[in-house]
């Protein structure tokens, strides 16, 4: 079984073409083993496609390393776009669409190698994210973690996010509080978590705990959600840079919170999985 491995600012995925495996083979134990850093090929998830799609040029399924299926991934989408270019299914400068469980996105690979994805519209409404409780926009609400009160915003761009604006952020804090927030009862589908520091009107910084994957060096959907929160707070303009441990992404967010993301992808390797790796 052959995979193509890429990373987007350190967030790495294995692309599994549908010709290499039937969907029924993508069981939770199989995905966990393949993605394992010691016992498998090692990755933050598996991208399965291209698949037939009714509403787009290509279909894509996205799997987290714990075997759960993600609705959308910004970095995963950019990686999938690069894969489509490498197998000559798309061309530089061509507009094309990809259907995910979180909706259809429009994509383009630019002449400079950067990949542009129109991520969709961010919503802060509890029924769409979802967040438990009365129907409302989930903005600047209190949450207690480890005996300390914080403020959080919730958002969706096809997948759920919990954003905590802070004066200072760190990897240690993210690793401590991220898993608690991911599984908090407020979020019936669990949630991705971002710790947000606004640097100025053109730059924000985030640390990321990704649902089903854990601490993550970079995330496109997390950048989109955290950026939309900073825009909602009135602290950034419509065009700004997101700084993450793995690198930077460029975001454009209009007044209706439609997000366009621009960033790089690096091809790592073609990898062949030995059957012995998933037999034991």
Contiguous low-pLDDT stretches (5 residues minimum) are none
Succession of helices and strands: EEHEEEHEEEEEEHEEEHEEEE
- Total number of helices: 4
Briefly, what CATH class of the largest domain? Answer: Alpha Beta
CATH topology of the largest domain: Diaminopimelate Epimerase, Chain A, domain 1
Sheet/helix structural class: alpha+beta
Q: How many β-strands, per DSSP? A: 18
What distance lies between the first and last C-alpha atoms, to the nearest angstrom? 17 Å
CATH superfamily of the largest domain: Diaminopimelate Epimerase, Chain A, domain 1
How is this structure best described in words?
- With about 280 residues, the chain is α+β, with helices and mostly antiparallel strands.
- It has two domains: about 1-115 and about 265-280, Diaminopimelate Epimerase, Chain A, domain 1 (Roll), CATH 3.10.310; about 120-260, Diaminopimelate Epimerase, Chain A, domain 1, CATH 3.10.310.10.
- The chain is built from four helices and 18 strands.
- It has an 18-stranded mixed β-sheet that branches.
- The protein starts with a strand and ends in an 8-residue tail after the last strand.
- The mean pLDDT is about 95.
Write the layout of secondary structure elements.
Elements: E1 2-8, E2 11-16, H1 28-35, E3 46-51, E4 58-63, E5 69-70, H2 74-86, E6 95-100, E7 103-109, E8 115-121, E9 141-145, E10 148-156, E11 160-165, H3 171-182, E12 192-200, E13 203-210, E14 214-216, H4 220-232, E15 239-244, E16 247-253, E17 258-263, E18 266-272
Parallel strand pairs: 2-3, 4-6, 11-12, 13-15
Antiparallel strand pairs: 1-2, 1-18, 3-4, 4-5, 6-7, 7-8, 8-17, 9-10, 10-11, 12-13, 13-14, 15-16, 16-17
């Amino acid at each position: 079984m052959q995979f193509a491995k890429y990373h987007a600012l350190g967030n790495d995925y294995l692309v599994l073409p549908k010709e290499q495996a039937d969907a029924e083979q993508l069981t939770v134990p199989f995905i966990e083993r393949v993605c394992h850093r010691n016992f498998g090929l090692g990755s933050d998830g598996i991208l399965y496609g291209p698949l037939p799609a009714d509403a787009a040029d290509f279909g894509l399924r996205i799997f987290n390393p714990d075997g759960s299926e993600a609705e959308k991934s910004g970095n995963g989408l950019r990686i999938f776009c690069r894969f489509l270019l490498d197998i000559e299914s798309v061309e530089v400068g061509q507009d094309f669409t990809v259907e995910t469980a979180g909706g259809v996105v429009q994509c383009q690979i630019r002449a400079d190698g950067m990949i542009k994805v129109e991520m969709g519209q961010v919503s802060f409404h509890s029924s769409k994210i979802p967040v438990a409780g009365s129907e409302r926009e989930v903005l600047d609400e209190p949450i207690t973690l480890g005996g300390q009160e914080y403020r959080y915003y919730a958002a969706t761009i096809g997948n759920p996010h919990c954003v905590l604006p802070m004066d200072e952020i760190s990897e240690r804090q993210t690793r401590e509080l991220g898993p608690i927030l991911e599984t908090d009862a407020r979020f019936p589908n669990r949630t991705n978590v971002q710790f947000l520091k606004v640097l100025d009107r053109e730059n924000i910084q985030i640390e990321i705990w990704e649902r089903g994957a854990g601490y993550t060096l970079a995330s496109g959907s997390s950048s989109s959600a955290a950026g939309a929160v900073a825009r909602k707070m009135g602290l950034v303009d419509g065009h700004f840079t997101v700084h993450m441990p793995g690198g930077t992404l460029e975001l454009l967010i209009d007044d209706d919170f439609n997000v366009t993301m621009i960033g790089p992808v690096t091809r790592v390797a073609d990898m062949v999985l030995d059957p012995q790796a998933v037999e034991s």
